[in-house]
């Protein structure tokens, strides 16, 4: 039997926000100070348009942890007048739907410091920035998040230079590990028979390998 926390995360990944609200409320009945559950609940409230409830819930997080980066960031996004301001979040019930050759789940390497990773949210839109044969991943403020593994970077650089278009989103982020979902949204004619992603691409690196890899930022390249 899976734990309530894992269940809550799995439900969020399916985009069932009504059930996500219910599950996280149940978790909070046994532990009202569970910051992760409070943040998940506030996020679900935001997506479903319950802005006032979202702000109150994020405030509960700050009452427990005044420096919590997720609550601080999202209260700022919600705005002083309770307006729903979340341009970088694109959540739908099928946003992580995998399609052979057109989508890939990728574990980033050389990730940013944990204090930056902690501010990321599932569904947050990211940017792919090419530099030579490497692809850097940035947030909407062009803040460095991490890099695609070399084999993936080289392959996508060719397609991007040729005119293919991709979108990428945060699938999960924890400590030094960031997993993103990349989706091909346009394939040009000359690559019509060439899939963006091949089965068996070596792109899932272990957390241990990631920790050992030297940090490389865009500025260092």
Describe this structure in words.
It is a single chain. This protein has helices at residues 4-14, 17-30, 35-47, 51-64, 69-78, 114-117, 150-162, 207-212, and strands spanning 103-107, 125-131, 134-138, 144-147, 165-174, 177-186. The chain is an alpha+beta fold and 221 residues long. It folds into 2 domains: 4-78, Tetratricopeptide repeat domain (Serine Threonine Protein Phosphatase 5, Tetratricopeptide repeat, Alpha Horseshoe); 103-216, Alpha-Beta Plaits (2-Layer Sandwich), CATH 3.30.70.2330. A 6-stranded antiparallel β-sheet has the order 1-6-5-2-3-4. It is elongated, with a radius of gyration of 18 Å.
Tell me the helix content.
25-40%
| CATH fold descriptor of the largest domain | Alpha-Beta Plaits
Overall CATH architecture of the largest domain: 2-Layer Sandwich
The overall pLDDT, averaged over residues, is 81
**What is the count of distinct domains?**
2
List the uncertain runs: 82-88, 202-221
What is the number of helical segments per DSSP (H or I, 4+ residues)? 8
CATH class of the largest domain: Alpha Beta
Distance between the termini: 47 Å
The percent range for strand residues is 15-25%
Report on the biggest sheet. Answer: 6 strands, antiparallel
How big is the Rg?
A: 18 Å
Q: How do the strands line up in the largest sheet?
A: 1-6-5-2-3-4
Give the helix/strand class: alpha+beta
Order of helices and strands: HHHHHEHEEEHEEH
Total beta strands: 6
Please tell me what the overall shape is.
elongated
Summary keywords:
about 220 residues, alpha+beta, Serine Threonine Protein Phosphatase 5, Tetratricopeptide repeat, Alpha-Beta Plaits, 2 domains, 6-stranded antiparallel β-sheet, 8 helices, 6 strands, disordered C terminus
């Amino acid at each position: 039997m899976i734990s309530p926390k894992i269940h809550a995360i799995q439900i969020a990944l399916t985009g069932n926000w009504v059930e996500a609200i219910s599950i996280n409320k149940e978790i909070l009945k046994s532990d009202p100070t569970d910051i992760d559950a409070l943040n998940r609940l506030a996020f679900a409230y935001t997506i479903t348009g319950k802005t006032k409830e979202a702000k109150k819930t994020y405030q509960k997080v700050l009452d427990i942890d005044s420096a919590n980066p997720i609550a601080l960031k999202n209260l700022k996004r919600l705005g002083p007048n309770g307006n729903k301001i979340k341009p970088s979040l694109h959540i739908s019930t099928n946003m992580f739907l995998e399609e052979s050759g057109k989508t890939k789940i990728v574990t980033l390497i050389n990730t940013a410091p944990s204090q930056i990773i902690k501010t990321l949210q599932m569904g947050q839109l990211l940017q792919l920035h090419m530099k030579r044969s490497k692809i850097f991943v940035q947030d909407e403020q062009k803040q460095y998040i991490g890099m695609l593994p070399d084999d993936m970077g080289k392959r996508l650089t060719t397609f991007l230079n040729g005119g293919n278009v991709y979108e990428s989103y945060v699938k999960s982020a924890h400590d030094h590990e960031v997993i993103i979902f990349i989706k091909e949204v346009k394939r040009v004619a000359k690559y019509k028979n060439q899939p963006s992603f091949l089965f068996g691409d070596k792109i899932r690196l272990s957390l241990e390998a990631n920790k050992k890899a030297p940090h490389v930022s865009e500025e260092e390249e």
